[in-house]
Amino acid sequence: MKNPAEIAVARFGQKYNCAQSVFSAFAAPLGLDEETALKIASPFGGGVARQGEVCGAATGGLMALGLARGSSSPDEKEKDEVYRLSLEFLRRFEEKHGKILCRDLIGYDLRDHAAHEQARQAGVFTSICPRLVRDAAGIVALLLEK
Length: 146
Hints:
The protein has helices spanning 4-13, 18-27, 34-41, 56-69, 76-97, 102-106, 113-122, 124-127, 129-145. By secondary structure, it is mostly helical. It has one domain. Helix 4 (56-69) packs antiparallel against helix 5 (76-97). The radius of gyration is 15 Å and the shape is globular. The two termini are 15 Å apart.
């Protein structure tokens, strides 16, 4: 697999949202076509439809973990395993960035159109978000190596 963090950052640079960038970096190697991955992740940018909730990069990372290690059965043991892995991902992401909510990470409430424009003018989407995308993809890659 090519370096997923580099792939994710390159996709983000192509104007895909943070969730799309991270999730799609893992899709093809895990058996999901890129177009489908991009569609699935499309609502999760900006902390879920620009609501400033859980960072889209983190959401994309969780989707990648689910694709790689998730369960398609209602078995509690299988659910527990993907939850354990997901919690480890979130712990590492928050340890690195101090938070997991988009609005806290970027310092702007994207629900407000004026604040969204201020964030754009301040360059947060080119200065902060690429690091979040890179780190989320990097954490997923490390966890999947185990």
